[in-house]
Design goal:
Shape: elongated
Helix content: 40-55%
Number of strands: 4
Number of helices: 7
Strand order of the largest sheet: 2-1-3-4
Largest sheet: 4 strands, mixed
Order of helices and strands: HHHHEHHEEEH
CATH superfamily of the largest domain: Glutaredoxin
Length: about 160
């Protein structure tokens, strides 16, 4: 069940929209931001709010790379595996992240800080090889830059919501 603090603005936004289903991605993202990922309960809540079926929400949720149906770390690292990044060192970036964090694609570090997800082109070819961390672009990447970014994020952020 959603808190009134979250429910009221969503209901207001839906009521002000001629075609509420157009807000489905925004609603999923708002619920994901609240819960940390789009839980089964959040799928049900989105369906109820938008007068859709849970299956319709699930179909859309699994289509988008930035909707997470399982718990993720505080920082989600989307490593670009597009052609330009691939040509400019994608493999070395990914391998360095795996080694530095001790996880593989789709996994989250034990401390709950980082999740790595390879992602189709993120649109930052001028920064290749590049990655997004919680929507912020980083690149061109080197092992040293990656280490600095991860160390800074870990030291500046509060502990994750849930221990992994």
């Amino acid at each position: 069940m959603l808190s009134e603090e979250l429910l009221e603005p969503l209901q207001k936004r839906i009521a002000e929209t001629d075609h509420p289903r157009e807000l489905v991605v925004d609603i999923m993202l708002a619920l994901q931001n609240h819960h940390g990922y789009l839980s089964d309960q959040a799928v049900e809540e989105a369906a109820r709010l938008l007068d859709m079926t849970p299956l319709e929400i699930e179909e859309l949720a699994t289509f988008y790379d930035f909707i997470y149906r399982e718990p993720v770390g505080r920082f989600v690292i989307h490593v670009c595996d597009g052609v330009v990044c691939w040509m400019n060192g994608y493999d070395s970036v990914l391998n360095h992240l795996f080694k530095k964090l001790g996880i593989k694609p789709g996994e989250t570090t034990e401390d709950g800080f980082f999740t790595i997800l390879p992602t189709a082109c993120i649109g930052y070819c001028d920064l290749s090889p590049a990655m997004l961390i919680n929507g912020r672009a980083y690149g061109p990447l080197t092992p040293e830059k990656i280490d600095g970014i991860l160390d800074r994020l870990r030291s500046e952020a509060p502990p994750p919501r849930m221990a992994r």
